[in-house]
């Protein structure tokens, strides 16, 4: 390879051979070994996005974290206090400050490790959805990761691809590329590899080049990779842009806001505590000194720590990362994290038919030619041979107007479009020799299939004659037909003929068959690129093929309906075929008032008219990708939360406009790039799984919020109540820290992986607009008060009856922490009893048990106990601790019972709650 020059190369000015020579490659492509060598030298073909946070930066962020700042202030105050004590009376007691500093370090380390782990999990998912390119290596076409492309590689491009690097094109055929990413121009440019360019043209005019990140909208062609990564044209722009997306989800933003608001509450509560102390201060007898004021300050700091749920942001990140990893294992690959939340609130799923709801395994089951139409009867074939000569022209057209191929490695497999594959099988059972056909009839022209025209045509050389063959959606073909192939030869088609053909095809469509019409035409001279050969055709006949629904889909659709999620079929197929399949899948039911809308009706409707009926429409047929976008926009306007599937290049705008764009794993790179979620198995069932998981993740995070905040409420009220009564503080900073960071956080993490409630898909879609919907605030306060009652009662007992502050403090610490552990079990449902059989969450039991052991170690192990200012209790006091620890759990269960009685009385079904 030539040495790199600092001047940018103008590859469009070089001819093809020169480019191959300079890059030391051939049209057969590089060898794998050479490609690897170049990869090692040049690096990955990746645009540099936001760099990963370094550990140093993460530590710095931790140090700037509000919680840690408060903790460090606490530790510093404690340290100063200890120093002053040592200087005044010689006692050495640095334990508290050491413990707090240790906790800061521990807390930060856990947060960094968790964040890294979550990041790694998400990166692993990103790798799963990394774009691929089709590359010739040693003459073989293979699919490689786009980032592994090197200069000199030969890339094959076709519709739906994202150009993987800067390419000098060759052998293009109607290659159309949309270059908006670079030029802002949204109309695709038709490329021409043959063109020779002398001047220094702008990017949009370089017709023999294709540039990284632009989109192939039609045709195909080859290109030599000339620049990769940041040296590409888009790379030059990316240098000044930050391409990495912001992955903060709305929920995480809401949690951050909650943290911020709680810090304000913390400052407020602390001021009250300090204020109360100042008012009560016996100024005359007790002049305020630094040392005498310190305990007040420590109480205020403890309060501040109590108010902020330290573990929450980390736990939420971990829950999400675990959740999306779980989803990926079930074939639902979340590409954009916010989709997780939106999935839980989806109200409608707009799904393609072919391949998603159906198996995409088409079989020709009926055919009809000339006399059949008059008789109004099709010929049932179901993969059985038909020997009548009369069907031969139809068979021939079906073989010639076809781009599918049998897989050389597996004759039962088809490479290409399944509709065309079905025709090939049909030819096979009729003993047609495809090789012979290919040899005999040379294809000289193709007008490729496109979802808008719904037709495709070819022109072949039949001896000296040129013959055109067209196939496509029956109405489209009939529109272009002027003649009819009868038993006696070609004659003009009559209105009666057309009527008979349409009647028969309508009956077939009602039987859920995809009906394709076939026509032919003699052509005078070889057409040129862009010519239209689909007019003045002679009708040959039609085929009807069945594409059975996927087996699992019906139950998934029912489950979605129970969950308040409507399924809408959007298809390019005929209305009657679509309705027949929709009926068998319970998507369409006339008795329910469902409507089916075809393209012609849709075109006539204004958006306002569509808005009036759209909530009733469950089938949109003969829809073009542009109409898909319109449908999704109108759906959004009437307040639906829309999930939309798509796989083609034209689907990208609709996927972006939907709240959740869903691409098929087998779809084009463009669709996958635009989507929020990728279905690795193309199966509708996976959408249901994703909705269920989305709900589960969101609900679990809310459970954690409720659980942690209730604990914090109890802690704050304890301190404030003692302060009001003029009693010594029941909880010191390190107690609160232990509770918040250990005995609360561990069960909280376990709650985060709580299995989905059995009835999660019987509930209505989630309302995710506010964290505090559905009575969360009330529950946080009442549950906090229940815990307060138990632990403060014990504290009062210690102060008033035992008359020992250390005993009182030990009792209230133990009750507070143990009752929180039990309280985590309450949290699994806000209505159902904790004793009702739930799906077993072994993590929760292990977490509760593990945390209990920690509490017991802190309170019982000699040496450790003293570090935390705790003392031994009498057996009676331990018994009281055990009994009181159950009080909040029992209270919450009683509250749920009352709630259930209320719901029953008002005849509200609570079985799903
Ligand atoms: P869905 O939108 O439900 O996934 P689809 O993707 O199969 O259905 P299109 O591919 O847009 O829909 O096809 C629309 C219509 O075009 C079909 O109903 C059929 O009549 C016709 N058609 C499909 N494939 C071909 C093909 N290879 N050649 C000619 N016509 C075709």
UniProtKB/TrEMBL annotation:
One of its GO terms (cellular component) is plasma membrane. Keywords: ATP-binding, Cell membrane, Membrane, Metal-binding, Nucleotide-binding, Translocase, Transmembrane, Transmembrane helix. One of its GO terms (molecular function) is metal ion transmembrane transporter activity. InterPro entries: ATPase_P-typ_cation-transptr_C, ATPase_P-typ_cation-transptr_N, ATPase_P-typ_cyto_dom_N, ATPase_P-typ_P_site, ATPase_P-typ_TM_dom_sf, ATPase_P-typ_transduc_dom_A_sf, ATPase_P-type_domA, Cation_transp_ATPase_P-type. Pfam families: Cation_ATPase (PF13246), Cation_ATPase_C (PF00689), Cation_ATPase_N (PF00690), E1-E2_ATPase (PF00122), Hydrolase_3 (PF08282). It is a multi-pass membrane protein. GO terms for biological process: export from cell; inorganic cation transmembrane transport. SUPFAM superfamilies: Calcium ATPase, transduction domain A, Calcium ATPase, transmembrane domain M, HAD-like, Metal cation-transporting ATPase, ATP-binding domain N. The chain crosses the membrane at residues 67-88, 94-113, 262-281, 301-325, 704-726, 732-755, 776-800, 806-822, 843-864, 876-894. Residues 10-83 form the Cation-transporting P-type ATPase N-terminal domain. It is found in: Cell membrane. Belongs to the cation transport ATPase (P-type) (TC 3.A.3) family. Type IIA subfamily. This is H+ transporting ATPase, P-type ATPase. It comes from Alteracholeplasma palmae (strain ATCC 49389 / J233).
